[in-house]
Amino acid sequence: MLSPLPPLLVSYRNFLSLREEDLSAMSMMNERFSSICDGKIIYLVKSCNGVFFLDFELGDGKREFYIYNLTTGKYRFISLPDTIDESHLVLTMNLAFDPEKSEDYDVVCLWSYASGDQLRFSVYSSGSWIWRHSTECYGCNEYGEVDLYGYDGIFWNGAVHWFSQTGQLLCFDIGNCSFRSMSTTPIPEELGIGYFGEFGGHLHLIGHNSDQCTEFDIF
What is the model's pTM? Predict the structure, then answer.
């Protein structure tokens, strides 16, 4: 089975505001999440343009997944892709939501078979309530490892992106449910990754070198 990878940035259930006027909003966020916990443990929280993805641990390796709209207070349970029947085979789910284009959202699930020799991709669409399965796969090495810095991708420009240790970008087009090529500035393989994400409509990568004198390269 594929080895777990630590995400570049992990969001947890507790929120801390640095502005006093936001404290009530942060408290309300925790209260709303608590309303659907029902004894479950929040393992991971992600957000995309105001919509939240919640990953719950139930014990015995089982998990449940929900999409939560903090504005409306409505949420939806996300079932497993019909290609698998065990939640531990899910490596992560990536939320894709662009309110300027549609009220619907997509969930890109990264999963593997028990053999763990390939990373597979499936897409859930809120408009149809069904999973689409990509014919694409991402290979692993002999130890069941992939060269990605994390399974949690970044949604930008209609696709989810991952950064690999070889300095390449893996770009998965949600509409076509397939990989697509993407030109990028050459990035040194020895560059350490400090941040990879979207901001202001652009995809950003901040890297640092291994010298004692700290320097940052921003792409």
Answer: 0.78
